[in-house]
Amino acid sequence: MLYTEKVMDHFANPRNVGEITDADGVGEVGNAKCGDIMKMYLKIKNGVIEDVKFKTFGCGAAIATSSMATEMIKGKTIGEALKLSNKAVVEALEGLPPAKIHCSVLAEQAVKAALSDYYTRLGVDPTPIVGTVGDCEACHVH
Ligand code: FES
After folding, report:
1. Nearest protein Cα to ligand 1, atom 4
2. Which residue lies with its CA nearest to atom 2 of ligand 1?
3. Phi, psi of 141, deg, nearest 5
4. 0.85 exceeded by pTM
5. Element at 39 (helix H, strand E)
6. Is 93 in contact with 4 (CB distance < 8 Å)?
7. Rounded to whole angstroms, how far apart are CA atoms 18 and 53?
8. Phi then psi for 70, rounded to 5 degrees?
9. What is the CA radius of gyration of the chain?
10. CB-based pocket (< 6 A), ligand 1
11. Which of 39, 49, 50, 51 has the fewest CB atoms in 10 Å of its CB?
């Protein structure tokens, strides 16, 4: 079995799919190599991520990792969401095949891109807080 049960579950029943029309931050990242695109919407109140939705035009692993990433940041503070690594998402999914690790990077970067947008809208330079988004080898930000 190439994929764990958790991956199959999040692929078949992705959590938090959709969009938030009055989102406080929206991030879109794409992987130049595979052409997959991920869009993340955040509703933030008092520094807490109250709601999160995503849309992924991509592979099954990208869908499963974005689904898991949204579950892991929902109800958390911005600081906690910023600490979310693709490694933690992969661990929560009980593993991904090596060729699919880059898909989890897309999920991590989408969260960071949405938080960057949140700070930019507030007139705050996001770079010192969020870091450079899309600096992984195969990703680039739109
Ligand atoms: Fe592109 Fe998975 S193959 S994100």
Report:
1. 103
2. 103
3. -95, 140
4. yes
5. strand 37-45
6. yes
7. 5
8. -65, -40
9. 14
10. 31, 34, 36, 58-59, 61-62, 103, 106
11. 50
* Ligand 1 atom with the shortest distance to the CA of 34: 1
Q: How far separated are the first and last CA of the chain, in Å rounded?
A: 35
- Active-site residue flag, 34: yes
Element (H, E) at 58: none
Q: Which of 59, 103, 136, 139 is catalytic?
A: 103
Q: How far, in Å, CA of 19 to CA of 37, rounded?
A: 14
> What does the pLDDT look like over 67-80, one tens digit per residue?
999 999 999 999 99
The type of residue at 70 is T
Q: Strand 139-141 vs strand 25-31: parallel, antiparallel, or unpaired?
A: antiparallel
pLDDT tens, position by position, 111-120: 999 999 999 9
d(CA 55, CA 99): 22
Q: Which of 34, 59, 136, 139 is catalytic?
A: 34
